[in-house]
Write a structure and sequence with these properties.
Mean pLDDT of chain B: 69
Structural class of chain B: mainly alpha
Number of helices of chain A: 8
CATH topology of the largest domain in chain A: Arc Repressor Mutant, subunit A
Structural class of chain A: mainly alpha
Radius of gyration of chain A: 20 Å
Distance between the termini of chain A: 65 Å
Strand content of chain B: under 5%
Low-confidence stretches of chain B: 171-190
Number of strands of chain A: 0
Largest sheet of chain A: none
Strand content of chain A: under 5%
Radius of gyration of chain B: 31 Å
Shape of chain B: rod-shaped
Largest sheet of chain B: none
Mean pLDDT of chain A: 85
Number of domains of chain A: 2
Number of helices of chain B: 7
CATH architecture of the largest domain in chain A: Orthogonal Bundle
Oligomer: heterodimer
Order of helices and strands of chain B: HHHHHHH
Chain lengths: 192, 190
């Protein structure tokens, strides 16, 4: 399980107290999920302020709807879906759901070692943030949150093949962004 | 995962996934909970107020229905004098009945609790109706006979009934129909 995993079990008693409107129980839920929720929002939006708004509104939505939680699926999955929907809705509203549109020949696998293997955290985060929002979202949802292309297609309103192509194109773009820039030797030609 | 794309081994896929999962979790802003808790508190207050206001409005609407219905029952004809009453006596009697009804509705309106205040649209409707009542009152002041005053009293009572419906509705009659209908069903059906 990664450090930002949502897979946190919430005791039934806490959910029952939250259903009764107990703010203390709701704070317990918030504290348990604040990091994965904020991380998901930040990775999808690449904007700290927007991510804050996403978590804020998503948590209020959780509070409003906790009585509707039926308990037939894990609570964490239900909560994650609310955060995810809120983030995608915000990106859509801001017309920020742009996607990578590079030619297919650039997405071919490369023989060179994957640059993310050795890239430091800051570089990888920076490269991820430079991807278009839709492409970044597909990559994150697929690789980190473990959603399938079918599920991603349903959430984003796109097709499964679109999700797959965004994953391939986004991966190629990340590779480009993380390639060390070739050092250019200074021109030392001496005039005749 | 049943995704076909996941069944094919792609070293890029696996290593990128591992690298992304290895990124540290982001720290949520420290003041985010206090902001959420503040909004939660506001929501709970609104919900509590609504919880009180809606039953109050329903009770008020029911009371209005009873108050408005009781005096408007047609008078039971008196068999002994039915044929012999003059037009003036009839007008006087009906004016007295309408005057009493008018007073009852005004008393009821004056006793309306503050919790059943209206929204912007209802407030405008209230002001307009009250203006019309004031206009009718001016005409009543100038009326020279009971026959002349009678239609004005009818109009006044009808306007007061409208006002009672508006005042006992906590939400815009033209806005959220479900809430308005739920809280004023008895009044509007009169």
């Amino acid at each position: 399980m990664s450090t930002h995993s949502f897979q946190i079990e919430v005791p039934d008693t806490v959910i029952a107290r939250a259903r009764r409107g107990e703010v203390a129980a709701f704070e317990q839920i918030y504290r348990a999920f604040e990091r994965p929720a904020y991380t998901l929002a930040l990775r999808l939006t690449a904007d700290a302020e927007l991510a804050r708004d996403v978590v804020h509104d998503a948590m209020l939505r959780v509070f409003d709807r906790v009585r509707q939680f039926r308990g037939d699926a894990p609570f964490w999955g239900w909560l994650r879906q609310i955060v995810l929907n809120e983030a995608l809705m915000r990106l859509r509203r801001g017309r920020a759901l742009t996607f990578e549109d590079v030619p297919d020949d650039e997405t071919l696998p490369s023989d060179a070692p994957a640059p993310w293997l050795h890239a430091d955290t800051r570089l990888l985060e920076g490269a991820l943030a430079r991807l278009p929002a839709m492409t970044r979202s597909v990559i994150w949802l697929y690789h980190v949150e473990g959603y399938t292309h079918v599920e991603i297609a349903q959430m984003t309103g796109m097709t499964t093949s679109f999700s797959k192509s965004q994953l391939a194109r986004g991966t190629a773009r990340l590779r480009q962004l993380l390639q060390p820039t070739a050092e250019v030797a200074p021109c030392l030609t001496v005039p005749a | 995962m049943l995704d076909r794309a996941r069944m094919k081994f792609d070293p890029d896929d696996a290593s990128l996934g591992a690298a992304l999962r290895g990124l540290p979790a982001a720290e949520a802003p420290a003041d985010l909970w206090s902001s959420i808790a503040g909004d939660l508190s506001d929501r709970r207050t609104v919900a509590r107020r609504r919880g009180i206001a809606v039953p109050l409005a329903a009770a008020a609407a029911l009371l209005a229905a009873v108050l408005l219905w009781l005096p408007s029952r047609p008078p039971v004809p008196d068999a002994g004098v039915a044929g012999g009453t003059s037009a003036a006596t009839t007008a006087d009697a009906e004016t007295a009945r309408l005057r009493a009804r008018s007073q009852r509705i005004e008393q009821w309106l004056a006793a309306l609790p503050a919790a059943s205040q209206q929204d912007g649209r209802n407030l405008m409707a209230t002001v307009e109706t009250e203006d019309l009542i004031a206009l009718v009152d001016m005409q009543l002041g100038a009326a020279r006979s009971a026959e002349e005053a009678l239609p004005l009293w009818r109009q006044r009572v009808a306007l007061l009934e409208d006002l009672a419906v508006i005042r006992s509705t906590p939400y815009g009659l033209t806005g959220d129909r479900s809430l308005a209908d739920a809280s004023t069903g008895d009044v509007t059906s009169l």
